[in-house]
Amino acid sequence: MAGTAGRLQDKVAIITGAGQGIGLAYAERFLDEGAKVVIAEANEERGRIGEASLVGRGEAVFVRTDIADEASVQACVDATVERFGTVHVLLNNAAIYMDLDTSNASLDYLRRVFDVNLHGQWLMARAVAPVMVAQGYGRIVNQGSIAAYLHQLSGGGDEFTGVPNYAYAQSKWGVIGLTKHLAATLGKHGVTVNCIAPGLTMTEATKTVVPEAVQPMFVGMSAMRRELAAVDMTGPAVFFASDDAGLVTGQTLCVDAGTVMPH
Description:
Largest sheet: 7 strands, parallel
Strand content: 5-15%
Shape: globular
Mean pLDDT: 95
Structural class: alpha/beta
């Protein structure tokens, strides 16, 4: 579909964690919509494989990026501007998920998860903001999770065994708050900031982290009784990244077939 005019024609997008899973699905759809894509991925092997899988689909380039590292984040943005001249869209997808250690309730591990899942999104937004503000246009799309709303999963058994750190859920709740603050700061400069909160999406990461016996529970909890795939997140992402959402900012959209319905 390379060369086909789309809703993101000639837009330049940085997509973090785009070497696999939902991030790669975002990259595929953005290319199909006419965007130029930077695959900002910490894992070089994953990044190279993702880049290779996109050959012939459009203009995509891998830039190794550790979103928890300030210098690496700035280097990614600088490389994007050098290659494409600007940044129109930031899609903050990368997170500790596939390698999430749900048994580690330590403060140190909580800080590590926050450094990537929350502070990494802030670092990326902070780095692209000057470019977007200077041109009076930008779209930042953060990735949260319905885990932020699912307190039921934290209940455990009836016997008290200590207070966990809720690392993943806590970090994703922080992303929802970060979205609102960034939207308030950047709106006057023509930059919108919104958030997608996926439900349990059947990627390889999910199959690694979520026990197989638990996975069907999310289908049963959803209003639509539907299993989610990575591609289901791409339409909402294109909307937030497009001019159709020019006056939509500070919003979190749960894409979960109706599993949670927050006010």
